[in-house]
Write a structure and sequence with these properties.
This protein is α+β, with helices and mostly antiparallel strands and 145 residues long. It is built from three helices and six strands. Strands 2-1-6-5-4-3 form a six-stranded mixed beta sheet, with helices on one face. InterPro entries: DUF1348, NTF2-like_dom_sf.
């Protein structure tokens, strides 16, 4: 794996995970997603990464980038918080919530769980997300932009 090309750079920490390194992975994912930069987010995944996001199934970085572009065109002012739920050798489970508004200025809080599986280079090869949306009033927001 080349360390020069960002698309092929290993992403420490590597499995097997400890409580400390699993939490580092969670924070790195949270930071990347809060950047709302689809290319940056996609670099944390293997070239052939498999996703389930709600009822959408994706395969590979190109599909991930396209999906995230559309997501953040619709989910405006997106802001995410992730919490480590559990971990094992090369897997991490998180719970999360994020807030966003649509183009009609209606706010939502989305709740969910993700199951992650990593390769030996610290790249996520599988991401399975279950997500539910809950409408909120602007004054009910908890996550600052």
């Amino acid at each position: 794996m080349s360390t020069q090309d960002p698309a092929h750079r290993p992403r420490p920490p590597f499995p097997p995970f400890t409580a400390e390194t699993a939490l580092q992975k969670v924070r790195a994912a949270e930071d990347a997603w809060n950047s709302r930069d689809p290319e940056r987010v996609a670099l944390g995944y293997t070239e052939d990464s498999e996703w389930r996001n709600r009822d959408v199934f994706l395969s590979g970085r190109a599909e991930i980038v396209d999906f995230l572009r559309g997501k953040w065109e619709y989910e405006l002012d997106y802001r995410l918080r992730k919490e480590l739920w559990a971990f094992t050798d090369n897997r991490i489970a998180v719970r999360f919530e994020y807030e966003w508004r649509n183009d009609e200025d209606r706010w939502f809080r989305s709740y969910g769980n993700e199951n992650w599986e990593f390769d030996e280079h610290g790249l996520m090869r599988r991401r399975y997300a279950s997500i539910n949306d809950f409408p909120i009033a602007p004054d009910e927001r908890r996550i600052a932009i």
